[in-house]
Amino acid sequence: MRQVVVLRPQLPEDLPLLTGGESPFDDFGPRRPATQPADCDLEDSGALTVLDDDGEVAGEVSWHWQARRWGPNAASGCPMIGIWLRPTHRGRGVGSAAQQQLVELLFTHTAAHRVEAHTDVENLAEQRSLEKAGLLREGVVRGGQWRDGAYRDGVLYAVLRTDLARLT
Ligand SMILES: CC(C)(COP(=O)(O)OP(=O)(O)OC[C@H]1O[C@@H](n2cnc3c(N)ncnc32)[C@H](O)[C@@H]1OP(=O)(O)O)[C@@H](O)C(=O)NCCC(=O)NCCS
Predict the structure, then answer these.
(1) Rounded to whole angstroms, how far apart are CA atoms 126 and 91?
(2) Which atom of ligand 1 is nearest the CA belonging to 25?
(3) 124-132 vs 94-109: helix axis angle to the nearest 10?
(4) CB of 37 within 8 A of CB of 10?
(5) What family does the database annotate (predicted)?
(6) In a domain, 124, yes or no
(7) Cβ(90) to ligand 1 under 6 A?
(8) Ligand 1 atom nearest to CA at 119
């Protein structure tokens, strides 16, 4: 059964729990602790807190509109989504439910035609989680991400607005 999760704007009291890290796939070196909640403008960059079915802070989902567009016009731009869950909240379906909800929010409240995600070729949990959320694997992006001392290969995923009928 799909997990019931809630996405809501970040509150100041969420911040100590939203540390990031604690995953080899999120190791980009020291980071400054957030001192204020992230923006949640779906047409720009932002993040939302993920609450699990007990109302606990499970982690966060984020998005940013790609500087790299697939054409020179604004209509060829699309958001890329990301996620980080607290270790205690991984492996029970929260990730796929949260990413599916974020995709739905982006299609409902922006004119995006395409929502993308990218994850390491070795991040099998995120690949499976994205597939359960309805994104399709499109291909391997070779050496696109510098992380923890090396260039890493990733997998590009996407879902189109016109795919939604397939998801419901
Ligand atoms: C990646 C992440 C978001 C996934 O969320 P999650 O709630 O743990 O994942 P879900 O429970 O929705 O789905 C995970 C799926 O992957 C599978 N899986 C987990 N580890 C796996 C592995 N090593 N090999 C193959 N499949 C694996 C699980 O069995 C599950 O599939 P199933 O439901 O068909 O059994 C979460 O684990 C996380 O925050 N990790 C650390 C940060 C991170 O990697 N973020 C993404 C960076 S791009």
Answers:
(1) 10
(2) 44
(3) 50
(4) yes
(5) Belongs to the acetyltransferase family. RimJ subfamily.
(6) yes
(7) yes
(8) 48
User: How would you classify the pairing of strands 6-9 and 46-51?
Assistant: antiparallel
Task: Tell me whether residue 1 is in a domain.
Answer: no
CA of 48 to the centre of ligand 1 (A): 19
> 32 is in which domain, residue-wise?
6-167
pLDDT in tens, 24-50: 999 999 999 999 999 999 999 999 999
Q: Which atom of ligand 1 is nearest to the CA of 84?
A: 39
Rounded to an integer, the average pLDDT of 88-113 is: 97
Q: Find the mean pLDDT for residues 45-70.
A: 95
| CATH assignment at residue 48 | 3.40.630.30
Across the range 2-22, mean pLDDT stands at 94
Query: 29 C-alpha to center of ligand 1: Å?
Result: 22
The whole-angstrom separation of Cα 152 and Cα 135 is 21
DSSP 3-state assignment of 141?
A: strand
pLDDT digits (tens, 9 = 90+) for 127-142: 999 999 999 999 999 9
Domain count, the chain: 1
Tell me, in angstroms, the distance from the centre of ligand 1 to residue 116's CA: 17
CA angle 31, 37, 39 (to 5 degrees): 105
